[in-house]
Design a protein that fits this description.
The protein is an alpha+beta fold and 80 residues long. It has helices at 40-50, 55-58; strands at 2-9, 30-37, 64-67. It is built from two helices and three strands. The chain is globular and about 40 Å long.
Length: 80
């Protein structure tokens, strides 16, 4: 199993970014998804069933992938 982490930040969204993916149907500034799955396809399927997550746009963003059997820092967040 692997851990898939997607993060998309739209804080500085502008017209020059019109083709940028929109990973969730709700209006957001910062979206984070962390999924435990056998492969990326399964992770995307699980997110799609969760509601609101847009798998087509998530596929445009490469996730960070971690092995579930190794020690790792998965996510840290510092906001000013």
């Amino acid at each position: 199993m692997k851990i898939y982490v997607w993060r998309h930040n739209r804080e500085f969204h502008s017209y020059s970014m019109i083709n940028e993916p929109c990973v969730h149907q709700d209006l957001y500034r910062d979206a984070v998804a962390v999924v435990l799955a056998h492969d990326e396809k399964e992770a995307l399927d699980l997110l799609s069933r969760r509601g609101g997550w847009r798998a087509d746009d998530l596929q445009r963003l490469p996730p960070k992938v971690y092995d579930a059997d190794e020690a790792a820092v998965l996510f840290t967040d510092i906001r000013g």
